[in-house]
Amino acid sequence: MGALSWLVLLLTHPGEFRILLQYWLWHDQRDVSVPSDHANTGWDRDTMRRCWHFLDLTSRSFAAVIKQVEDDLARVICLYYLVLRGLDTIEDDMTLPDEKKQLLLRNFHKHTLTPGWTFTESGPDEGDRQLLVEYDNVVEELRMLKPSYLDVIVDITKKMEAGMADYAHKAQTTGSVYLEKIEEYDLYCHYVAGLVGEGLSGLFSASGKEGEFLASQLELADSMGLFLQKTNIIRDFREDVDDQRYFWPREIWGDEKYGAAVGHPAFQEMKEMHLAGNEKQAEYVQSAMILNALCHATDSLDYLRLLKNQSVFNFCAIPQTMAIATLHLCFKNPDMFQRNIKIRKAEAAQLIMRSKNPRDVAYIFKEYAQKIHAKCTADDPSFIKIAAVCGRIEKWCEDQYPSFVNMATGGQAQTFDTTDVRSRVAQILDDHQRKAWLEKKREELLRTTGAATTAREKGEEATAADTFKFVAIAFTVVTVISLGSVFGIMLLLDRFT
Amino acid sequence: MPDSYLVIGGSGLLGGHVVDQLVARGETSVASFDIAPGSFDQRVRTFVGNICDRAELENAVKESGATCIIHTASLLQGKSKEQVYKVNVGGTENVVEVAKAQHVSKLVYTSSASVVFAGSDQPNVDESAPYPAKAFDDYNAAKAIAEQLVLKTNGYQGLSTVSLRVAGLFGPRDRVTVPTIMGIMMSKRSGMQIGDNKNLFDWTYIENAAQAHLLAADRLSPDHAKYKLVAGEAFFISNGEPRPYWDFPRGLWKAAGHTPKKITVIPKGIAMVIAVIMELVAWIRGSEATLTRFRVHYICLTRYCNIDKARNALDYHPLFSIDEGIRRSAEYWMSTHPEDVAKLRETQ
Hints:
- Chain A is 68% helix and 1% strand.
- Chain A is mostly helical.
- In chain A, helix 7 (98-106) runs antiparallel to helix 11 (147-174) and helix 18 packs antiparallel against helix 21.
- Chain B has a domain at 5-173 and 202-241 and 305-320: Rossmann fold, CATH 3.40.50.720.
- Chain B is globular.
- Chain B is built from 13 helices and 15 strands.
- Chain B has helices spanning 13-24, 54-64, 81-101, 138-153, 177-186, 206-218, 227-230, 247-255, 268-285, 293-299, 308-313, 322-336, 338-347, and strands at residues 5-8, 30-34, 44-48, 68-71, 106-112, 122-125, 160-166, 169-170, 192-194, 200-201, 204-205, 234-237, 243-244, 264-266, 303-305.
- Helix content of chain B is 44%, strand content 16%.
- In chain B, helix 1 crosses helix 6, helix 2 (54-64) runs parallel beside helix 3 (81-101) and helix 3 (81-101) packs parallel to helix 4 (138-153).
- The A-B interface holds A 370, 373-374, 377-379, 383-385, 387-388, 390-392, 394-395, 398-399, 402-403, 419-422, 424-425 and B 116, 118, 120-126, 128-130, 132, 196-198, 200, 241-244, 247, 250-251, 253-254, 259-260, 263, 304, 306, 321-323, 326.
């Protein structure tokens, strides 16, 4: 942003100006070129520098998020991302004939480990064709990864290439352009996004920054990916339709109930949704698509609760809060059918700054769910279901982070809202736990005196008197033994000299 | 030996559905006891009597050979304190005494989610919540006393008891909730919203509530694997799908074919002022106010429960979503109110 646009912002949106200024002041970015960090970032190698460059090229904002992940994990995720990007570039390429594409896709997990492998036949319009032209850099770097990382990357590549090849084959041979069933839509999203989540979980576990169990949370990881992918698919409606890419399932947009609600027949083609006169029906389809995406929200929150590393948490949480904000932006927004819409910069900055722990993230979800619900009107065929899914998000918050607990701030302990009945129960539990903790501490203290242990082994309660008795006996025993041995040694010395 | 069932309050909304489900699953011995005669399947033995009369009740239990009593009868809000206590506490006392005397082995009691309600917000409340020191009203006080009486009796000479705290019942044959909400629509007040509609509220579709009673009854057999988790326990029962308060009536109106054209939102504070004025006017005229401060307060409350305990111990998983429940309830209402439906179609 230039100085002028800062000034304009200050005058037109002072609140946003403040947020962006705070963000700019307080939010550090990791510089991967710093020499002390080279062991992690690999910046000292030409090949890795090239990889960082490609990451910046594909998406600057996403690159920044990746770089923030701690230690070497940022580099591993960078490479993982480039592999998938390479695969995606081949899948997207309409200039490649089916037979060629099939072979390329289905063997990509081998190519990606073949030293010197590059691909120069991408169509001239492919944005990331240069990545494939210089793919040998990625191969080189991948081969340096430790096996536990590489196994995850290769495993996901195998699964994803098979899925993509199937879809590409179907599209290019049958001429069917639409996804029919919601199941197909879910499966497609699984291949392109759910698997990404699965692989990331595997990498987090392999890094030791997260528990081993995380790698096996496949359903939750899948939901993380689906929530993001579906949000993008919804938001990018116009761009995709103009490019004749159709990801919305016909089971939703072609459902006659959305037509019936306005006295029209069901949509026959996706592009009808952006035509004048179809606004209301398109809005109902849009609600149904957003409802479908919102069904993954509580799974995402479940996943985020499992994380323990702060940098991994931020990496996972920020895209999720952006997604729910984007869904709110799209909900009942006719502009979405006409042009590319985006959440405002300040809103995004605020979300990044707030997405720091699972409780705050859950409350962000709740806020947006309430806003979405507030925009929903009873004429919408998805009305009741949207209320239910928003209610579910709110109930999730109450289950995991109940509102009667006021968080600890400024050195103060947490407090309970006394008007809430749950407080009384929590207070009793809290006291109980505190007592149990004190009791444990007392026992630990007694155990360090050693004597108490013997007493407990006999199954007796170690009282102060007992302890004293034991100490006295132990003292006597030790004294007697030492005196005895001194006497013995002197006796021996006496005899042999 | 299969149980012999006596449903007290079998002509009521919940009792009727419990009877239906018992018959539907092939129980051979099902009887109903109610102050009002109802219409039942011919396989159901009907006893007409008052639970406040111990002799009448005892006779029904003896005659039907009941081994399992499902006590759903209750006097709802709006009656005098004396009446409410007489039926809800005294009546339940009779049920418990007769069950003891007649060696009944199971007693399932229909309680209310509001037994722990103290008048303020209650998000996600579960069974660990204590009874309030001061009950919100006579009905809640009476229900709480009766519930404790029933639970205390558990274990007395082979009698096992359980209490189900149902929340916001609605469904076909409903004479309270659905007609009241439809009444608002018919008097053209559906476009008014009091409060910001962010407060979540809990409802239970009647067939789900009835199913919970059957599940609870089955688990009161001492040889059932979940017996220990159920006997002597209280459970919250709802649809487990809390949603903002106004969405429920709007869903019902919509299912009946009416969508308010425009929603006028009246903030809670202003609604309170209006309520005071309306109460004053009503007081002067000696009539009943359509909007009271109590109503406003109640509408703006967050109230829903956590049904995890019932999910785990009773294996209660609501068969019908609220969505489906609303559809069925509206259908029933439309079939029984043809004039209203015709009037609605005219004005739409």
